[in-house]
Amino acid sequence: MRVELSVNGQPRSDEVEPRLLLVHYLREVCGLRAANVGCDTTSCGACTVLLNGTSVKSCTVLTVQASGQEVTTAEGLAAGEALHPVQAAFRQEHGLQCGFCTPGMVMAAVGLLAENPDPTEAEVREGLEGNFCRCTGYHNIVRAVLAAARATAGSAAEPDPAAGGVPEEVGA
Amino acid sequence: MSILGTRVLRTEDPRFLTSGGVYTEDVVDERLAGACHVFFVRSPVAHARIRSVDVSAARSAPGVVAAFTAADVEDLPAIKPAGIMNQQMTRSILASDKVRYVGEPVAVVVTEQAYQGEDAMELVDVEYDPLPAVVDPAAALDGEVLLFEEAGTNVAANFGDAGQLDEHLFDECEVVTARTIVNQRVAPAPMETRAAAAAWGEDGRLTAWIPNQGAQGTRAGLARLLGVPADQVRIITPDVGGAFGAKFGADPEHALVAWVARRLGRPARWGETRYENLISMVHGRAQIQTITIGGLRDGTVLAYRLEIVQDAGAYLKIGAMLPTLTILMTPGPYAIGRAEAVAKSVVTTTTPVGAYRGAGRPEATAALERAIDLFAAEAGLDPADVRRRNLLPPFTEPHRTAFGALYDTGDYATALDKVLAAAGYAELRQEQAERRARGDVVALGIGLASYVEITGMGDGEAQAPKENATVEVHPDGTATILTGTSPHGQGHETAWAMLASDELGIPVDKITLKWGDTDLIPEGGGTGGSRSLQLGGGAVRQAAQELIEVARQRAADELEASPADLRFNVERSAFEVAGDPDAAVPLASLAQEERLLIRTVFSAPGATFPFGSHVAVVEVDTETGKVVLRRVVTVDDAGFVLNPLLAEGQRHGGIAQGAAQAFVEEVVYDGDGNPLTASFADYPFLSATEVPSFELADMQTLTSYNPLGVKGIGEAGSIGATPAVQNAVVDALAHLGVRHIDMPASPQRVWEAIQAAKGN
Amino acid sequence: MIPAPFDYVAAESTTHALDLLDSLGDDAKLLAGGHSLLPMMKLRLAAPTALIDIGRLAELIGIRADGEELVIGAATPHALLAASDLVRADAPLLAHSAAQVGDPQIRHRGTIGGSLAHADPAADLPMALVALGGSVDVLGPGGRRNVAADDFFAGYFETALGPGELITAARVPRRPGASWGYQKFVRRANDWAIVGVAAVGGRIALANMGPVPLRAHAAERALAEGATAAEAADLAAEGTEPGEDVHANRVYRMHLARVLTRRALEHRT
Question: A-B interface: how many C-beta pairs under 8 angstroms?
Answer without folding.
Answer: 202
